[in-house]
UniProtKB/TrEMBL annotation:
Pathway(s) this gene product operates in, as recorded in its UniProt entry: Cofactor biosynthesis; coenzyme A biosynthesis; CoA from (R)-pantothenate: step 4/5
Name of the protein: Phosphopantetheine adenylyltransferase
Catalytic activity: (R)-4'-phosphopantetheine + ATP + H(+) = 3'-dephospho-CoA + diphosphate
Membrane-spanning intervals of the chain: none
Occurrences of domain Cytidyltransferase-like (ranges): 5-136
Main location: cytoplasm
NCBIfam families the record matches: coaD_prev_kdtB, cyt_tran_rel
EC number: 2.7.7.3
GO MF, one annotated term: pantetheine-phosphate adenylyltransferase activity
Length: 166
Protein backbone atom coordinates (compact mmCIF):
# COMPACT_ATOMS: atom_id res chain seq x y z
CA UNK A 1 0.00 0.00 0.00
CA UNK A 2 1.49 3.34 -1.11
CA UNK A 3 1.02 6.14 1.43
CA UNK A 4 1.71 9.77 0.59
CA UNK A 5 1.98 12.70 2.96
CA UNK A 6 1.19 16.28 1.94
CA UNK A 7 2.40 18.54 4.77
CA UNK A 8 1.71 22.23 5.10
CA UNK A 9 0.33 25.05 7.18
CA UNK A 10 -2.86 25.42 5.11
CA UNK A 11 -3.65 28.72 6.88
CA UNK A 12 -6.16 28.67 5.21
CA UNK A 13 -6.29 25.97 2.57
CA UNK A 14 -6.53 27.41 -0.94
CA UNK A 15 -7.78 26.14 -4.28
CA UNK A 16 -4.11 25.65 -5.20
CA UNK A 17 -3.69 23.29 -2.23
CA UNK A 18 -6.88 21.48 -3.20
CA UNK A 19 -5.64 21.08 -6.76
CA UNK A 20 -2.49 19.36 -5.50
CA UNK A 21 -4.51 17.19 -3.09
CA UNK A 22 -6.72 15.96 -5.94
CA UNK A 23 -3.78 15.28 -8.26
CA UNK A 24 -1.54 13.64 -5.64
CA UNK A 25 -4.36 11.50 -4.24
CA UNK A 26 -4.66 9.80 -7.61
CA UNK A 27 -1.14 8.40 -7.28
CA UNK A 28 -1.33 6.80 -3.83
CA UNK A 29 -3.59 4.43 -1.95
CA UNK A 30 -3.81 6.82 0.99
CA UNK A 31 -2.93 10.50 1.11
CA UNK A 32 -2.45 12.06 4.53
CA UNK A 33 -2.78 15.82 4.75
CA UNK A 34 -0.43 16.77 7.58
CA UNK A 35 -1.42 20.12 9.08
CA UNK A 36 1.69 21.54 10.65
CA UNK A 37 1.64 22.79 14.21
CA UNK A 38 4.62 25.15 14.05
CA UNK A 39 5.43 27.05 17.23
CA UNK A 40 7.66 29.44 15.25
CA UNK A 41 4.68 30.70 13.25
CA UNK A 42 1.63 32.56 14.49
CA UNK A 43 -1.16 31.11 12.33
CA UNK A 44 -4.50 32.82 11.86
CA UNK A 45 -6.36 29.54 12.44
CA UNK A 46 -5.58 26.90 15.04
CA UNK A 47 -4.37 23.51 13.85
CA UNK A 48 -7.74 22.08 14.87
CA UNK A 49 -9.60 24.67 12.78
CA UNK A 50 -7.37 23.98 9.77
CA UNK A 51 -7.93 20.21 10.09
CA UNK A 52 -11.69 20.78 10.35
CA UNK A 53 -11.67 23.01 7.25
CA UNK A 54 -9.91 20.38 5.16
CA UNK A 55 -12.18 17.62 6.46
CA UNK A 56 -15.19 19.77 5.56
CA UNK A 57 -13.84 20.25 2.03
CA UNK A 58 -13.02 16.59 1.30
CA UNK A 59 -16.15 15.18 2.98
CA UNK A 60 -18.39 15.70 -0.06
CA UNK A 61 -15.83 14.70 -2.67
CA UNK A 62 -16.05 10.91 -3.15
CA UNK A 63 -12.84 10.89 -5.19
CA UNK A 64 -11.03 11.99 -2.01
CA UNK A 65 -12.43 9.28 0.28
CA UNK A 66 -8.90 7.88 0.75
CA UNK A 67 -7.57 11.25 1.98
CA UNK A 68 -7.04 11.62 5.74
CA UNK A 69 -6.29 14.81 7.66
CA UNK A 70 -4.27 15.14 10.87
CA UNK A 71 -2.32 17.80 12.73
CA UNK A 72 1.30 17.07 13.55
CA UNK A 73 4.37 18.66 15.06
CA UNK A 74 8.05 17.82 15.07
CA UNK A 75 10.24 16.52 12.29
CA UNK A 76 8.43 15.73 9.08
CA UNK A 77 10.46 12.56 8.44
CA UNK A 78 9.58 11.25 11.90
CA UNK A 79 5.90 11.84 11.22
CA UNK A 80 6.18 10.26 7.76
CA UNK A 81 7.87 7.19 9.26
CA UNK A 82 5.18 6.96 11.97
CA UNK A 83 2.49 7.01 9.25
CA UNK A 84 4.45 4.60 7.02
CA UNK A 85 4.47 7.18 4.24
CA UNK A 86 7.12 6.67 1.56
CA UNK A 87 6.29 9.83 -0.40
CA UNK A 88 6.22 13.45 0.70
CA UNK A 89 4.18 15.67 -1.63
CA UNK A 90 5.18 19.30 -2.13
CA UNK A 91 3.84 22.00 -4.41
CA UNK A 92 5.94 24.39 -6.48
CA UNK A 93 4.43 27.69 -7.60
CA UNK A 94 7.54 29.23 -9.13
CA UNK A 95 11.25 28.71 -9.60
CA UNK A 96 11.82 30.58 -6.36
CA UNK A 97 10.04 27.79 -4.45
CA UNK A 98 12.25 25.11 -5.98
CA UNK A 99 15.55 26.03 -4.32
CA UNK A 100 14.05 25.95 -0.82
CA UNK A 101 11.97 22.82 -1.45
CA UNK A 102 14.93 20.97 -2.99
CA UNK A 103 17.07 21.68 0.06
CA UNK A 104 14.33 20.40 2.39
CA UNK A 105 13.75 17.30 0.22
CA UNK A 106 17.44 16.45 0.17
CA UNK A 107 17.72 16.92 3.93
CA UNK A 108 14.67 14.72 4.54
CA UNK A 109 16.10 12.05 2.23
CA UNK A 110 19.41 12.17 4.12
CA UNK A 111 17.55 11.75 7.42
CA UNK A 112 15.53 8.83 6.00
CA UNK A 113 16.53 7.40 2.60
CA UNK A 114 13.28 5.40 2.38
CA UNK A 115 11.26 8.61 1.96
CA UNK A 116 11.17 10.44 -1.36
CA UNK A 117 9.73 13.85 -2.17
CA UNK A 118 7.42 14.27 -5.15
CA UNK A 119 7.04 17.80 -6.50
CA UNK A 120 3.83 18.98 -8.15
CA UNK A 121 3.94 22.16 -10.15
CA UNK A 122 0.95 24.29 -9.40
CA UNK A 123 -1.67 24.56 -12.10
CA UNK A 124 -1.19 27.83 -13.97
CA UNK A 125 -4.40 29.39 -12.65
CA UNK A 126 -3.06 29.10 -9.07
CA UNK A 127 0.61 29.94 -9.64
CA UNK A 128 0.32 33.30 -7.86
CA UNK A 129 -1.87 32.05 -5.00
CA UNK A 130 -0.80 31.68 -1.37
CA UNK A 131 -2.54 31.54 1.98
CA UNK A 132 -0.96 34.86 2.91
CA UNK A 133 -2.56 36.49 -0.16
CA UNK A 134 -5.95 35.07 0.89
CA UNK A 135 -5.49 36.36 4.46
CA UNK A 136 -4.58 39.84 3.18
CA UNK A 137 -7.59 40.07 0.86
CA UNK A 138 -10.00 38.70 3.48
CA UNK A 139 -8.73 41.06 6.18
CA UNK A 140 -9.93 43.97 4.06
CA UNK A 141 -13.22 42.32 3.16
CA UNK A 142 -12.16 41.54 -0.40
CA UNK A 143 -13.74 38.77 -2.44
CA UNK A 144 -11.91 35.47 -1.78
CA UNK A 145 -14.37 33.19 -3.62
CA UNK A 146 -11.93 32.55 -6.46
CA UNK A 147 -9.12 31.61 -4.05
CA UNK A 148 -10.52 29.21 -1.44
CA UNK A 149 -13.02 26.33 -1.49
CA UNK A 150 -16.57 27.56 -0.92
CA UNK A 151 -16.93 25.39 2.21
CA UNK A 152 -14.62 27.70 4.19
CA UNK A 153 -15.22 31.16 2.73
CA UNK A 154 -17.53 32.30 5.53
CA UNK A 155 -15.20 30.88 8.20
CA UNK A 156 -12.33 32.97 6.85
CA UNK A 157 -14.45 36.14 6.88
CA UNK A 158 -15.73 35.27 10.37
CA UNK A 159 -12.16 35.14 11.68
CA UNK A 160 -11.70 38.76 10.60
CA UNK A 161 -15.20 39.76 11.73
CA UNK A 162 -15.91 40.82 8.17
CA UNK A 163 -19.53 40.93 7.15
CA UNK A 164 -19.82 39.85 3.56
CA UNK A 165 -22.49 37.97 1.66
CA UNK A 166 -21.08 34.70 0.40
Amino acid sequence: MKIGLYPGSFDPITLGHLDIIVRASGLVDTLIIGVLKNNAKKPLFTAEERVEFIERIIKNRPELSHVKVEAFGGLLVDYAKQKQASIIVRGLRAVTDFEYELQIAQTNHKLDPTIDTMFFTTSVEYSYLSSSVVREIASFGGDIRQFVPEEIIQSVYDKYNVIRSV
